[in-house]
Each structure stands twice: as structure tokens, then as C-alpha cells.
Amino acid sequence: MGFFALTATMVLDVYEYPTFATSQLNLMFFLIVGGILWFFPVALCSAEMATIPQWEKGGVFTWVSETLGERWGFTAIFFQWFQITVGFVTMIYFMLSALTEVFGWQILDQNPVYKTLAVLAIFWLVTLSQLWGTKVTDKLIKFTFSLGVVVPAVLLLAFCIIYVAQGNPLAFSGSGRNLLPNFHDAATLVVFVSFILSYMGVEASATYSNELKNVQRNYPIAMIMLVVFAIVINSIGGLSVGAIISQGDLSLSGGVMQAFDAYLVHFGIDSAILVKILAFLVAFGILGEVSSWVLGPVSGLYMAAQRGLLPPLFRKTNKHEVPVPIVLLQGALVSVWTIVLTLFGGGNNVSFQVALSLTAVIYGLMYVIFFTSYFKLVHKMPALKGVYQVPGKKVGKTIIAGSGMVCTIVVLGISFVVPSSLPQASGLTYQLMLLGGALITLTLPFVIYHFNDKSQHVIIHKPIHLKATETNWLVRPAARGEHMIVSDEKRLRMAEQKVMQKIKTKL
């Protein structure tokens, strides 16, 4: 149960509900298919690699480096980090829509220039606050999660249940009235990308499987519980928005507040103050999530720097153990994505959908490398055995990993299909922006690796893996960071303490 709690937060994202709502009743099909054919393969394969002796530390970077080589290990950890530089944009878009309700500043959400400036201001304020470490953030998350995620989600679900129980008409239309999607219309299938994205990041929790008792039995049970939980929660969440907001009126970044407004009007609750309070809570929840993502993924790239895969500048930390150069690099990239996506995409549903799809594409590229490395492990390195074993021996492992690989490739392909939620006039803009972002992303890690000084590619410091008890379970697994960022000075102090403890023990 403890391991389930450690991973459950990865499926609690209120800001994804409007995107889920675009698939209407089809969303249950997508959640079930994504859970069985993609989530389970990633979870099981990553657990096997995480429990191989000497592979417990380093996560995807270690697994891929040991199977495919250092170049691919760096590429995988780069993609795992790089996706959040785009993901920040979608989160803050959602936050701005909520703040628009609070202050009534419609210009923030409608004017691309002002929206760009607002996203940049929020992101940099949060980023600069993280330069003093995560102690404040860890305390803040307890409030943002309970007040800004749980409370709005529970209220939204409650409103929907009462609305449906009263026999009110539902806003579902066309093929969205059916549980099965229209397989002949690729535009309606592209929403599958957002469902897979909601499952992404589970590999980050697999490293804690080493701490489970009877991992062969208990790990799959925890994953089954998580998928069932995700299907139930996300189905109700998406349907809560889609049941009352028609597809033509749905805003991908402001859909949750649209739903709250509609429910309150329907129930005859004319309270502008209550709407503002709910909007503030939603914005507060997103603020906590943005804060939690600033430093977590950075630890993976910092670990690569400790292998000499980045210039020495990126191995530096401040007195609060924060790798400032990497954090500032991340901020610069987020700024570029914000300007490009908001100004060229118009700052509306097109910008939001491009950002969402690009995040999935970048993460998807990492999973292609991940499954390739697992195939190499199974078929070329049979002597390496993890404490946990994917069932079915070589054939079963190939089928399970193959399912995940096929789903990943499908997601990469359909990401470039213009979603049915966007106007056809915006189709070319969507595809060109997504293609441009994907090509840049695909090129960067290979360019960095090629031009970096290979003589520096040595293990300067081994990563210090965080135990489950040392992490904040309210933060998504992928946002926590698997490793402790430790400066050279602190490592020296830790080494001296170990020596002193040994001396005391002998005495």
C-alpha cells in the first residue's frame, strides 16, 4: 500500500481533465487500452532493470548506458529532462486561465503578447525561488496538493454526480456518445496521446521496487491498483468536464473553470466569490506542481554532468545544493518554448495542443530508446538477472515490451494528426510547429554529445540514490528526481563522517 501511495500522485492532474473531455465517453476505452498495453509494459520492464545488481542507481541513464552505450544513455536522460521544458508551458497556461477567473483579467488569457509575458513572469518567479533549495517547496506541496488538487477534483466530481443523478442532458455528441471511438477517423484518435502522457513517468518509481518485500508478487499488484485507480479517477474527471461543456465551447486550458461555472449556474448558485475561490485553489495547485518540477528532472541531467557528459560548468552547485547553471539553462529553454508556442500558435487551443503533443513526442522518443535497451537486455545479455522478472521468460518479455514499443510508435505517429478539437484552419500551424519542435529535440542530444570533450567522460561522482522514505510522496515520481544533488564539499564531509563512524565502531 505504501508503494501505491508513492506512485498514485502521477495520475492526479486536474489540468488534464479538459483534454480527456475532448474524447467524451471514448476516454474510458483510451484509459484502459493505455493502461494495459503501455503502462504495464513500462512499469514491469523498468522494474526488472532497476533490480539488476549495480543497476539500482541511475534509472534510465544507467539502464540504457549499460545496454546501448553511453551516447544513448545520455540521449535518453536528455529526453526525459527536456520534455518538461515544454510541459511547463501547458501547466502555466492552465494556471493563467484560473487566474483570469480570479482577477477578471481576460487579456492575460486572450492576448498572445500579454500571455507570453505572464507565463514568463510566473515561471521565472517560481524558478528563482527554487535557488534556495526545496525545503520551502516540500512544505508548500502539502497545501497545494490538498487544497489545489484534491478539493477542486472532489467538488468537480460531486457536482457531476449530482448533475447526472438528476437526469440532466449530457453534452456528449457524435461518436463521443459511444464507449468505442471511431477508428476510421484519425483526428478523433489523436487524443490517445494525452492519455499515454498521463501515464508517463512510471519508470521513475521503479527504482524504489528494490525496497519492496517479495517484489515479484507485490510490485505487479501495486501497478494493477494504480491503473484501476487511474482509470476510475481520470474517467470521472474527464467526464465531469465533458458532461456539461460542449466540444465547440471547450477550452483546453480553461475547461475546468468552465465546468465549475456551468455547474454553479445550473444549480442556481450565483456566487462570483465562490467561483473566484475555486479558481484560486486551482491556480494554487498548479503553482505547487510547477514548483515541484523545477529541480526534480534537473537531477538526472546533473548526474550526466557528473559523468563528464556536459561541460564542467554544469557540475557546479550553490550552497543550497542547487545546480544553478542547469536550472538557468532550463529556464532559458522554457522561455524560448513559451515565446514560440504562444506567439506563433496564437496563445489559444492550438498553442496548448502543440505543447501537449510535443511533450508526449519528446517523452515518447525516450521510451523508444528505453524499450530498445530492454530488448537488448533480454536477447543479448541473458546472464544479467533482476530480482524482479517480467513474466513469460524470453517470449513473454518480448511480447510485453513489444506491446509498449508499438504503443509508443503509434503515439509518435498520431501526434502529428490534427486533433478534432482544433479548427481545420489551424491544422498546418499545428503540424509545422510540432514537426519543428520534434526535429530540434531529436538533434540536440547528439550534437551536444558529439562536440563535448570525450576525454572528460569519466565517472566523477556516482549518484546518490534517494530512498522512498526520503522523497515527497505528494510529488509526481518523475518530478521528484531519483538522485540527491550533492556538492563536492558535502561529499567530502560525508566521507569524513563515514571514516569517523568506522573509527568509533572499532573503539
How much β-strand is present in the residues?
A: under 5%
Q: How many β-strands, per DSSP? A: 2
Return the CATH architecture: Up-down Bundle
Percentage of residues assigned to helices: 55-70%
Mean pLDDT, all residues: 83
The tally of domains stands at 1
Structural class of the secondary structure composition?
Answer: mainly alpha
Radius of gyration: 23 Å
**Helix and strand string, N-terminal first?**
HHHHHHHHHHHHHHHHHHHEHEH
Which spans have pLDDT < 50 for at least 5 consecutive residues?
Answer: none
Total helix count? 21
Transmembrane segments: 27-51, 72-96, 116-133, 145-166, 186-209, 221-245, 326-346, 352-377, 398-418, 430-451
GO molecular function: transmembrane transporter activity
Organism: Periweissella cryptocerci
Subcellular location: Cell membrane
Description of the molecule:
It is a multi-pass membrane protein. One of its GO terms (cellular component) is plasma membrane. This is Amino acid permease. By secondary structure, the protein is mostly helical. The protein has a single domain, classed as Up-down Bundle (Amino acid/polyamine transporter I), CATH 1.20.1740. It is built from 21 helices and two strands. The protein has helices at about 1-10, 15-20, 25-50, 60-70, 70-105, 105-110, 110-130, 135-165, 185-190, 190-200, 205, 215-240, 255-265, 270-295, 300-305, 325-345, 350-380, 395-415, 425-450, 475-480, 490-505, and strands spanning about 465, 485. The protein has a two-stranded antiparallel sheet with strand order 1-2. α5 runs antiparallel to α15 (about 300-305), α5 (about 70-105) crosses α19 and α8 packs across α13. The mean pLDDT is about 85.
